[in-house]
Amino acid sequence: CTSIIAEDEKGRMFHARNLDFGLFLGWDIKHSTWIVNRALKPLVLNLDFQKRNKTVFKGVTFAGYVGMLTGIKSNIFTLSMNERYSLDGGFMGILEWIFGVNSSWVGFLMRSVLENATSYKEVKKELVETKLIAPAYFILGGKSGEACVITRTREDSMDVWELDVKQGMWYLLETNYDHWNQPMFLDDRRTPAMKCMNRITQKNISLPTLYDVLSTKPVLNKLTTYTALMSVDDGTLETYLRDCPNPCMPW
Amino acid sequence: RAQDIPPYTEDCRTGTYPPTGPTFKGNASWYTINLDLPPEERWNKVIKDKKKEIVNLMQVIKDLVEAFDPTGQVIRLVDYKLPILLDSLPYPFNEEIQGIADASGLPVGEVIFYNIFYELSCL
After folding, report:
1. Complex confidence, ipTM
2. How sure is the predictor about A32, in pLDDT bands with cuts at 50, 70 and 90?
3. What confidence category does residue B3 fall into, taking pLDDT thresholds of 50, 70 and 90?
4. Residue B5, pLDDT score
5. Does any CB of chain B come closer than 8 Å to the CB of residue A217?
6. What is the pLDDT of residues B32-86, one digit of tens each?
7. Is A181's pLDDT higher than 80?
């Protein structure tokens, strides 16, 4: 996955993500793609969660999956999650959960905060402090000046990386590696994505230019299921199903 | 233009929005989930429209699992043991999952498996 939060010179916040899924889950030779990834695409949905006919939040999910991996609460926050690889991963978390350890499922926690939280600070606190069954990166954006990437182990938060526009850090970009380490050489989507972001500059950042970044290979790759674009200020959520015709990296 | 191995040299794309062309496969469709409904009824419309695709995905996953476990033990574990966990899942997700299983005709264990797939895939 690749998630980006950026703030333009007028203080507008944009949040965009590619959801990549299905690595090593069967290769379809005929269509030159991953089998599970191909089966998932028709299930991608935009959802408008309502109470008393009023929107509470909007999100992107797969039909049949009740959690959320991407979502927006208009005028309050935007949220996405990227997978974090760890030896102390979800399998151990599930075993502990079966034996009674009180931990949260990542997709369920995201939906809960989208449904119930009323401020950026509240969401951040919950994502930092709640015990999880699997490690993850949470990419959270709010209003001007509010954005962070939370690096989570199952137990606690390893790092909270904050947006700092005054210091020239006008965007945060997270793939599937801790931001203080180099990504794996064979899976470096961070460098090309940052190259494109730096070329666009803060002055020209917008949802269309973020779509450009997420359309550049290998940020776009054979695992990319959808691209979602969000703008917290006006509640925009747009989701596009993606394909990556050859030549294209398998991840 | 794109290389198959790093370092990557494809130029940054520009002018790709609004999406068109071979990398764009369509818009995600919109559905409303009414949170005032009982949890087991909230997803009925979605499942009615997407039942075929969900069943197809589960079959794809089952085929993959069977390639590694031809005896079918893992699938039996999912179908017969996972449902025990349903009541331990947090409300309202447990009841929504039950509703999805009822509407799709899939075994509840397979719907649970699908809903905890992120955690399982972290293995």
Report:
1. 0.95
2. confident
3. very low
4. 53
5. yes
6. 999 999 999 999 999 999 999 999 999 999 999 999 899 999 999 999 999 999 9
7. yes
pLDDT band of A31, cuts 50, 70, 90: confident
Q: Please confirm, yes or no, whether A1 is among the known catalytic residues.
A: yes
Nearest to residue A181, comparing CAs of A157, A213, A159, A214?
A: A159
Q: A-chain residues within 8 Å CB-CB of B112?
A: none
DSSP β-ladder status, A147-152 and B29-34: unpaired
Which residues are bridge partners to A132 per DSSP? A104
Residues with Cβ within 8 Å of residue B38, at least 6 apart in sequence: B95
Q: Which of B19, B54, B89 sits opposite A211 (nearest CB)?
A: B19
> Which residues of chain B have a CB within 8 Å of the CB of A201?
none
CB pairs under 8 A between A and B: 209
Q: Kindly state the percentage of chain A with pLDDT values over 90.
A: 85
B80-92: b (≥16 Cβ within 10 Å) or e = eebbebbeebeeb
